[in-house]
Specification:
By secondary structure, this protein is an alpha+beta fold. It has helices spanning 2-23, 131-148, 157-178; strands at 25-29, 32-36, 41-47, 59-70, 73-87, 90-98, 108-111, 117-122, 183-184, 201-202. The strands form two sheets. Strands 3, 4, 5, 6, 7, 8 and 9 form a seven-stranded antiparallel β-sheet that branches. Helix 2 (131-148) packs antiparallel against helix 3 (157-178). The model is unreliable at 10-21 (pLDDT under 50).
């Protein structure tokens, strides 16, 4: 009985581990891999209703907490939704919806065929800017302030110009390096040309 009990316990543990891992969203491209843990906040680009996806086509954007990815279906708890309003194949406008924590939300299921790209929007909460981007914004504004003050600086104008220009360059470098990477999962993803590299597969 003991060997059988041991085998049963091991089988149960394996099932639990498989179930836990199935909740995460895993991407792969060649030998490279990327995993988004359940609970991570992500932004997903999906085709707009009535519009076939293409590089220059309008699209919808869903942002929220990753609940799970199982059997080719991504489930998220929505935080924000940006939709294209289409009638008879023509774009009429756009609609943006933000959900408050007090609202009773139902999760949204997205088939992997509809996922055009994925990127992280926060670990414990939604963020419009990463920490690096926020720092870059502050440095950039400081640099622009120094540049704007050159006419009033008199003899110190050249120094302010050098300092301001350096701050703007540093802000650009930090901002670019801190921007979350977008993982394109469909060759027809809008703006795909901005993200050179291989297409990432959802596992």
């Amino acid at each position: 009985m003991k060997p059988q009990k041991t085998i049963w316990i091991l089988a149960t543990l394996l099932c639990l581990i498989s179930a836990i891992n199935a909740q995460d969203l895993r991407l792969s491209s060649g030998s490279k891999n990327k995993t988004y843990k359940a609970g991570t906040f992500i932004e997903v680009i999906v085709p707009a209703t009535g519009i076939a996806p293409c590089e220059k086509c309008s699209h919808n954007v869903l942002s929220g907490k990753l609940v799970s990815y199982q059997d080719g279906v991504l489930t998220i708890l929505p935080h924000e939704k940006k939709e294209v309003l289409v009638t008879d194949g023509k774009t009429l406008g756009f609609r943006q919806t933000k959900y408050t924590e007090e609202m009773s939300l139902a999760s949204i299921d997205i088939p992997k065929e509809d996922i055009l790209s994925v990127k992280q929007s926060g670990k414990k909460k939604m963020k419009d800017l990463t920490t690096g981007q926020a720092i870059a914004t502050c440095i950039g504004l400081l640099g622009l302030g120094h540049l704007a003050s050159i006419p009033l600086a008199g003899e110190n104008g050249d120094l302010l110009a050098e300092v301001g220009a350096a701050e703007v360059v540093v802000a650009i470098v930090i901002g670019v390096s801190s921007t979350p990477k977008t993982y394109v999962t469909n060759i027809k993803c809008p703006g795909q040309g901005k993200y050179p590299g291989k297409i990432w597969m959802l596992e």
